[in-house]
Amino acid sequence: MSAHRSRSFVIDLLKLLAAQLIVLHHLSAYGPMAEAVRSVWPSLVEHLYLDARLAVQVFLVIGGYLAAQSISGRRDQHHPMALVQRRYLRLIPGFVLALCWVTSLVWLLQPLISGDWLVDAPNLHSVLAHLSLLQSVLDVPALSVGVWYVAADFQLYALLVLMAFWFKSDRALSFGVAALTVASMWGFNRVESLDNWAIYFFAAYGLGVLAAWAHRSSFDQLVLGGVLLLGEESLWVAPRVRLALALLVTLVIAYASLNAHRLARLQLSRRGHLLVDSAYAMFLTHFGVIVIFSAAWEYGQLSSPTAALWMSGLAWLVSVAVGVLFHLKAEKPFTRWVNQPGRWNFAPWLTHSLGQSQAPSTAWVSGGAKR
Question: Largest CB tally within 10 Å, which of 99, 181, 267, 330?
């Protein structure tokens, strides 16, 4: 089967749309252009700020879906820590390069920009916290917007891997994931102080995992259906738009998975696939583009809301272009180099886990707010 035919049109389309919403969300949240647009079109900016960030739920569900696929068949082939290491080594190259890009731009252009929305300058403590993906847990100020999501996704994947090796059978694993998903829906996801931990986000992530396994058997479909019903009931107890959206996205991708043969002819174009593949890179780098355009705005002493709207639209397009360029020329080559077989053998039982570099299998975009 070709690479293009093996892709899911529905997953690609959801990722493509949600990725653009995240960029628009951040354009409405940071910089002087957002304030200028808000002065004339407050409803537009308010909707982009409050509603566009809900796209993170789309990526949490898709992230769980793709993570479940990535560990299928590997439970008996690799040590769990080997899979966790493999995920880390796929995440960290683009993450590090993007943080260098953003912090360098902030350091260079900060004298031209007013306001307190820029990220703090890095120090040894913050750098080590980000490299370990523990910055949120350690309450270290982020060096760029959205880096909390990378840390949360890594936690979620590690938790799923450990569950996959703890539960020896597929049925037991499905029950375990379902139980944690329901616990998150009814409890953890309602406690805002837990939003630095995987259990807070497992309500959406676990739905994606169960949707990926629904095609295996009628039992797995029954488990998914039961969790969806319990999720709907939890909305009556504590209404949350984010959970309602996660449930809806789960239904859509589960239907697409169970009817893959009917949807096989639907595919994005090659350019569409490139935009999807570069979504993670765009997520990591677009704050740097906002910094550049904000500096240009203030250097040019602009103030017109119309000019701000045009500048914001141009910044959006440039964010897409920078994401593609960064993906092709920086992220992919560096990730391939980092993931060369045998380069990072920290223990003998990890050696076999390092294969050729592939694109990250989760949905790498999120909004600046944790919702």
Answer: 181
Residue 345: predicted pLDDT: 56
Q: What are phi and psi of 49, to 5 degrees?
A: -70, -45
Q: Per residue in 35-53, is it b (16+ CB within 10 Å) or e — as a string?
A: ebbbeeeeeebeebbeebb
Positive or negative torsion for Cα 318, 315, 297, 290: negative
The span from the CA of 256 to the CA of 51, in Å, is 25
Q: Which two tokens stand for residue 169?
A: 């059978």
Q: How far apart are CA 312 and CA 140, in angstroms?
A: 29
pLDDT computed for residue 363 by the predictor: 56
Closest-CA residue to 45 (of 55, 33, 54, 56): 33
Structure token pair of residue 24? 């628009």
d(CA 117, CA 27): 12
Q: What is the DSSP letter of 110?
A: G
Contact 196, 136 (CB under 8 A): yes
Question: Which residue numbers in the chain have pLDDT < 50?
Answer: 1-5, 347-362, 364-371
| Predicted local distance difference test score (pLDDT) of residue 77 | 62
Of 282, 263, 267, the residue nearest 331 (C-alpha): 282
CA distances to 89, 144, 321, 322 from 328, rounded to whole Å, are 18, 21, 11, 10
Beta-carbon contacts of 208 under 8 Å, excluding residues fewer than 6 positions away, are 60, 61, 62, 63, 64, 65, 66, 67, 68, 250, 253
CA distances for 169 relative to 47, 163, 183, 334, angstroms:
45, 11, 21, 37
